[in-house]
Amino acid sequence: MPKKFSFREWFEEERAKLSEMSFGKAVKYIWQYYWIFILGIIGIIWLAVFAVHRLIAGAPEYWLYASFANSIVNPPNVSRLQSDFAEYSGWNMKEKRIEFSTNMYFDYNRNQARGNEYYNSFIALTDSGTLDLITMYPEQLAPLGESGRLMDWNLEQCAELREKYGDRLIWYEPPEYMEDTTPVPVGIDISDSLLVTKYGIYPESAALGIAAETTRLDAAAKFLEFIMNE
């Protein structure tokens, strides 16, 4: 019958071995035989420190959170856009941050994006009030209005934007089987904006919608001013 492992005996044996070694040999021995455990302990400590920091500091605060969905773009272009807009906005980046995300890929035209992890992420960001605006191709933005997660530009808080960009409105048209089939403006066409012409976030055409739950409509308006080169 195999001998039952005893941590105490193992510890005493290891301590006896180490006591007979020089400091250098002891360090080498410990690393050679216990490096996995050492890295594991370091990892646990790092995670603990990270968790405590997040609890104390809380979630990051944003000046603006924008998602450039379905875009295949070089990261330097996005970095340049973010840097240029930060300078244009005049916001203090030490207080809050600007987030420009390009890692969302979904098309509501395809079975209402059911089962798409990126669409689920869009839902979470929108419903939590984190996301301020989303851009994608015009033919993809209009159907997304059915989700109810794009702001209706008929609302009073959009009056100034509607007056300014009314000739660019993109409409979601509810299907005939719905009770209310009145078209709803859910975004605008920005195909001639800097997003396309200067930064190449999209190759030819693009549209912008504002998240229904945003509390930073002024920030979204400032971004629009910037990309429309006004």
**Distance from first to last alpha carbon:** 84 Å
Binned strand content: 5-15%
Helix content: 40-55%
Looking at the structure, what is the overall shape? elongated
Explain what the structure shows:
This protein is of the alpha/beta class and 230 residues long. The chain contains eight helices and six strands, in the order H-H-E-H-E-H-E-H-H-E-E-H-E-H. A six-stranded mixed beta sheet has the order 2-1-3-6-5-4. Strand 1 (62-68), helix 3 and strand 2 form a beta-alpha-beta unit. The longest helix is centred in the N-terminal third of the chain and has 35 residues, at 23-57. The protein starts with 6 loop residues before the first helix and ends with a helix.
Outline of the structure:
Helix content is 45%, strand content 13%.
What labels would you give this structure?
single chain; 230 residues; alpha/beta; six-stranded mixed β-sheet; 8 helices; 6 strands; elongated
Task: Give the SSE map.
Elements: H1 7-19, H2 23-57, E1 62-68, H3 75-89, E2 97-101, H4 117-127, E3 133-136, H5 138-144, H6 159-165, E4 169-172, E5 184-189, H7 194-197, E6 207-210, H8 217-227
Parallel strand pairs: 1-2, 1-3
Antiparallel strand pairs: 3-6, 4-5, 5-6
